[in-house]
Amino acid sequence: MRLLLFYSLRNLLARRMTTVLTAGGMALVVFVFAAMLMLAAGLEQTLVDTGSIENAVVLRRSSETEVQSSIERREAAIAEVQPEVALGDDGRPLAARESVVLFTLEKRNGSPANVTIRGIDEPSLALRPQVRLVAGRPLRFGAQEVMVGDKVAGSYASAGLGDSLRLAQRDWRVVGVFDAGNTAFSSEIWGDADQLMQAFRRQAYSVVVLGLRDPAGLDALKARLEADPRLQVEVLREDVYYREQSEMMATFLRILGIALTAIFSTGAVVGAMITMYAAVANRVGEIGTLRALGFGRGIILTAFLLESVFLGLLGGLVGLLAASLLTVIDVSTTNFQTFSELAFSFTLGLDTILQALGFSVFMGFVGGALPAYRAARMEILTALREA
């Protein structure tokens, strides 16, 4: 086996130029494939990290997003006093009534985009410990002030610290910029829920976020609230809710990546096949000599297949290395589920690495199968005569 590996690797080194060109084509395909997987993984990771297993979200039944949901004040009051809800430092239920609307703002490059405007309650910050103020001060409840995520402050006009944002015919002063890490909150604008509801003429909250005494108590809370005839609500664990928000967009990105990869990979496989056919044609005499020395057809087949698989693996490693550089880039796109702008980063995980390398090996195997079969089928006398 060691001899076969050495033989296959040596042949790749002996034909450096064709090796580089063929592996380069495969690297391009793997780069596209890995980039799309990383994009989908980044979107999922951002939304999953947004939620916490220690929080529950109460929405209007059958609402798919916070924007579509409405919770009456009476319903919010009932949800807050359940025994599974934790208490804050002040002894009051750790529950936040929040309103969520979409608003179109102009980005710094002049293009419009939908931004999530979240009206928060005083416990909202305690429920989201990942949110950290990095500039300015917290907003004062009852005033026309907002805090903006760092992705919003850097991307939108009039959203910097000290600027004035025009929302719902009112001017809102930006008093703080917060960093929510790699979560969707970094792409939001936060203000006082009651002030924003008056401005946007909303009578009901969008959701109620409940901090749980024990995450294991979610099932009991969910069963009680969803069975209460006074309520028309659905209760979800917060991280599950945000994971569901990413499903449609992530699936679209994966399908797009697979479609693009399928198109490009056809060319890469044909390239590998041509390279391996040329290798067989140039080494007819070598193949005849190996057969004459006692190497069987199976060994010849395996040797040429290994050579093609190494070629694919080399392209996969190069493509994956190039794709890994994308992790330093932040991208933003519209989430199809919420129609709001969401900023996130490419994420390279072990799953993506294994899938990309597995795909590159598959391309090498498919591209080398027919040439290897041709080499293995050669008769000894014919091969030596043609050499």
Give a short overview.
By secondary structure, the chain is α+β, with helices and mostly antiparallel strands.
Helix and strand sequence:
HHEHEEHEEHEEEHEHEHHHEEHH
Helix content: 40-55%
For the largest beta-sheet, the strand count, sense and barrel status come to: 10 strands, mixed
Q: How many distinct folded domains?
A: 2
Rg: 29 Å
Judged by helices, strands and strand pairing, the structural class is alpha+beta
User: How far apart are the termini?
Assistant: 26 Å
How many strand units? Answer: 12
The number of distinct helices, counting runs of at least 4 residues, comes to 12
What best-fitting shape do the alpha-carbon axes yield? elongated
Q: Overall pLDDT, averaged?
A: 84
Strand content: 15-25%
Low-confidence stretches: none
Task: Give a structural overview.
With 387 residues, this protein is an alpha+beta fold. It has two domains: 1-48 and 245-386, no CATH class; 62-231, no CATH class. 52% of the residues lie in helices and 20% in strands. It has helices at residues 2-14, 16-50, 73-80, 124-127, 150-155, 193-199, 218-227, 238-282, 284-292, 297-324, 350-377, 380-386, and strands spanning 55-60, 95-106, 112-120, 132-136, 145-149, 164-167, 170-179, 188-192, 207-211, 233-237, 330-334, 341-345. α1 packs across α10 (297-324) and α8 (238-282) packs parallel to α11. The chain is elongated and about 95 Å long. The two termini are 26 Å apart. The mean pLDDT is 84.
